[in-house]
Amino acid sequence: MLGLPDHVGSCLFDLDGVLTNTATVHAAAWKEMFDEFLENWASRSGDPFVPFDLDHDYGEHVDGRPRVDGVRAFLDSRHIRLPEGTADDPPSALTIHALANRKNYLVQQRIQADGVEVYPGSVAYLQEVVARGIPRAVVSASANCRAVLRAVDLERFMDAIIDGTVAEHDHLAGKPAPDTFLAGARALGVTPERAAVFEDALAGVEAGRAGGFGFVVGVDRVGSGHAEALRAYGADVVVRDLSELREAAARGRGQA
């Protein structure tokens, strides 16, 4: 029992925060990178140093978005203007791309040092999806998506992977635009209304709703009002873990 409506016959999973606990790794890397930058910016500009706020800034501006888009969105919120730069900028440079590269460097360091944790409830849910022969894909903004899936032995379960590398190659707009989820549906050969989106990020839930997907599952790993925000951005249902969908279905409230 999967807890999905009858009209849904495929699944599109975000990675970070839905299948793996790398969302906390990403959040810590964003904070480390931005706090270092903001301290340096304050000393240059004379503005007060206001740290990156994990409770607000992370969810509102960067979570679920491509790295460069996240940098732009956060800097815009602080009215800070930097040169765009290029993807080859060193992490030490003072450009938007350099900050994005610095964040990616910090994430890779943390993953190498600490490994990757998977959510057991999500793995059990995914295994049942596979056992039922339901088409499934991962749709993630992360360019490290495939490496993470391999590290936790989940790549073999996926029929398609739409990640940051694919998005860049195919010129797909990042979340909250629906383009990457729509690409995932195309890769599975299904229409959006026949697919369920599983997302923990506000930008991802917004993308699922904007794409006209048949069911949007918000995953609340944060608390502190995040469930309400997920619903406001378009989630049909919000759970703390995907195991709750299976439990609800087993109690007769689900439909598939």
TrEMBL record:
Reported cofactor(s): Mg(2+)
Query: Which key words are in the record?
Result: Carbohydrate metabolism, Isomerase, Magnesium, Metal-binding, Phosphoprotein
Which molecular function GO terms apply here?
A: beta-phosphoglucomutase activity; metal ion binding
Statement: the UniProt record of this protein carries the keyword Phosphoprotein:
yes
Name the Enzyme Commission number(s) assigned to this protein. Answer: 5.4.2.6
InterPro entries the record matches: B-phosphoglucomutase_hydrolase (IPR010976), Beta-PGM-like (IPR051600), HAD-like_sf (IPR036412), HAD-SF_hydro_IA (IPR006439), HAD_sf (IPR023214), PGP-like_dom2 (IPR023198)
Q: Which Pfam families match?
A: Hydrolase
Protein's UniProt keywords contain NADP: no
Reaction catalyzed: beta-D-glucose 1-phosphate = beta-D-glucose 6-phosphate
What the record says about family reads: Belongs to the HAD-like hydrolase superfamily. CbbY/CbbZ/Gph/YieH family.
Q: What is this protein called?
A: Beta-phosphoglucomutase
The scientific name of the source species is Frankia canadensis
